[in-house]
Amino acid sequence: MISSIKKLLSEARALLGGFISNLSGSKRRVPLLTRLDKYIIWKFLTTYIFLLIIVIVIVIVFDYNEHIDKFAKSHVPFSKIMLVYYVNFVPYFVNLFSPLFIFIAIIFFTSKLANGSEIIAMKSAGMSLNRLMRPYLLSATLIAISTFWLGGYVIPRSNVTRVNFENRYIKKKQATSADNLQMQVDTGVVAYISHFDNITKSGYGFSLDKFRGKKLVSHLTAQNIQYDTLSDRRYRWTLHNCDIRTLRGMRENVEYFDKLDTTIVMEPQDFFYVRNQQETMTLPELRDFIGRQRLRGAAGISTFEVEYHKRFAMPFAAFILTIIGMALSIEKRKRGMGASIGVGIALSFIYILFQTISSTFAINAGWSPMLSVWLPNIVFALIALIIYRRAPR
Q1: How far is CA 67 from CA 49, 60, 63, 249, in A?
Q2: Whole-number Å distance between alpha carbons of 293 and 185
Q3: Cβ of 189: how many Cβ atoms within 10 Å?
Q4: Which residue from 88, 145, 159, 197 puts its CA 20 to 30 A from 389's CA?
């Protein structure tokens, strides 16, 4: 009895083992990333980082030589220039020209692989062009995610320090007061300030009108207005010598206050557009700011809308330029990689120029900011499709 049970167990074990082997196949399981994929990803990322370091050093040298006279006139310590300005300048520059570095890196190392007959060996082993594209797109995905995260949430924080440094020591043009400010702070609520001083955060000649439909229901006037910078809550204002007139049909109720603490949905920063202010806002802050300014009917927000859409368009450019660069440089050329690198640099500069021109049309010519930002990606996506289909397979 025991021997028959052991025999049945051994037969069941053998049957289960055969089922598992048939299910998994006789061949070994192919990993998600092969050694060749890791090799291409390593080449991609190391070339990309190497080019970043070289170009950043060159840019810092040229930028310092350009502004050295202004640094000298402002008596800025050299340590402050390096540790405050350039430490925050480098991430901004890297994120701004990341597509250019991606393109040049792909052209450079792929042309090197092609001229060394490594691409030919891969194709001879049965690797298709679509399969060869996998490690390129994986690398582009890593860079695109990093670009989106840094550009949307990390770099704006460092840009605050950089922009303040530029406005103080380099450009030295910053508005400290504004006159005749009018904005809609809420639905049917319009605020007006005759003069506001951004240094003291105070103003005079303030009025606040509330409308129900087209009918005026309340009119508030104050001789002086002061923003509360010490409060933890936002939008806290103190009004002095304040009159509130409430209109109810033919009746009018008037109240007077020597001092009135109230909440008005506006801040001093809403009255001034600091140079490059859009670069100092994170993605949620930029979205909220655009929403508030639209509600208030403010002009000149196209610059902020362009920056908002650019935060999404820039990561996608990594995929487009990766496909173009790979398709251009995959073929072995008799004259070496010089022609591929030349074409790649020319196309990358055309892309940046196209992007700059289209953004300018959105800011100055009334184009749709979303269309203006995405138009270079759409055009170059079509170019990428044409070049990829014509690439040798």
Answers
A1: 27, 11, 6, 64
A2: 9
A3: 18
A4: 145
Q: Burial-class residue 117 by CB neighbours within 10 Å (0-12, 13-18, 19+).
A: exposed
- The span from the first CA to the last CA of the chain, in angstroms, equals 66
Quick one: pLDDT at residue 226?
Answer: 94
3-state secondary structure the chain: CHHHHHHHHHHHHHHHHHHHHHHHCCCCCCCCCCHHHHHHHHHHHHHHHHHHHHHHHHHHHHHHHHHHHHHHHHCCCHHHHHHHHHHHHHHHHHHHCHHHHHHHHHHHHHHHHHHCCHHHHHHHCCCCHHHHHHHHHHHHHHHHHHHHHHHHHHHHHHHHHHHHHHHHHHCCCCCCEEEEEEEEEECCEEEEEEEEECCCCEEEEEEEEEEECCEEEEEEEEEEEEECCCCCCCCEEEEEEEEEEEEECCEEEEEEEEEEEEECCCCHHHHCCCCCHHHHCCHHHHHHHHHHHHHHCCCCCHHHHHHHHHHHHHHHHHHHHHHHHHHHHCCCCCCCCHHHHHHHHHHHHHHHHHHHHHHHHHHHCCCCHHHHHHHHHHHHHHHHHHHHHHCCC
Query: Could you tell me the two tokens for 276?
Result: 């490059």
Note the pLDDT of residue 224: 94
Predicted TM-score of the model (pTM): 0.71
Q: Evaluate the CA torsion angle 353, 356, 362, 364 in order and state its sign.
A: negative
Q: In the numeric block, which tokens belong to residue 49? A: 């980082």
- Residue ranges in the chain modelled with pLDDT below 70: 1-31, 172-175, 273-275, 298-299, 333-340, 393
Other CB atoms within a 10 A radius of the CB of residue 111 amount to: 25
Distance between CA 339 and CA 393 in Å, rounded? 20
* pLDDT tens, position by position, 334-380: 666 666 677 777 877 788 788 888 888 887 777 888 989 999 999 99
Q: Which amino acid is at 99?
A: P
Overall size of the chain counted in residues:
393
Dist. CA 265–CA 382, nearest whole Å: 45
In contact, 191 and 208? CB cutoff 8 Å: yes
The pLDDT assigned to 348 comes to 75
